[in-house]
């Protein structure tokens, strides 16, 4: 904390397909067990692993021919990947090229067995998968082995009411199954307790802007162990930190 300068750990944007290059990277996760980054390389339709060791000069392909947008890993080291073209989420063991369907997979749509733009995912300790179903303006939960999902936020059409979302993005779920979601189109972050019919605005919601109480097209969020909330505030080119009351997810 406090550093003003970052360190490049993989290449910058490049449309080339060499293993020392990658294109648009909508999501990255850290695999602590192997001390590596797992990266969605959307431009090249692949998922790449990149060691965090300082002498690393190229990555290795984990999966290819996939339109990856989001990644998650559970405590059993299964990798979850959302596919924006197939509108589905699959679970993979390392080395598995086919995976197991865990959400969607019935084509694009708004039925409970469908997704439309699964843009972010979160996996809890029971291997339930939460999906920011972007174009359906909802967050939907798929329990392990389920053939359809359960709406846990939104699904009331696109809008600004506290019962609605507009293009939801970043996602986090705590140990009480409270959902925290970046409501990008409304420039806010919302909290939805388990079973709630409406959410509560916890950050933003004051229109797009650069003031401390405003966001402008936020896309991601994360918590640290002290309960600080970090928000990627895209159009303001900044990351903001907030202190809120929450219950840590110990996954």
UniProtKB/TrEMBL annotation:
Keywords: Glycoprotein, Repeat, Signal. NHL repeats lie at residues 106-145. One of its GO terms (cellular component) is extracellular region. Residues 1-20 are annotated as: Disordered. InterPro entries: 6-blade_b-propeller_TolB-like (IPR011042), NHL_repeat (IPR001258). PANTHER family: PEPTIDYL-GLYCINE ALPHA-AMIDATING MONOOXYGENASE, SMP-30_GLUCONOLACTONASE_LRE-LIKE REGION DOMAIN-CONTAINING PROTEIN. This is Uncharacterized protein. It comes from Rotaria sordida.
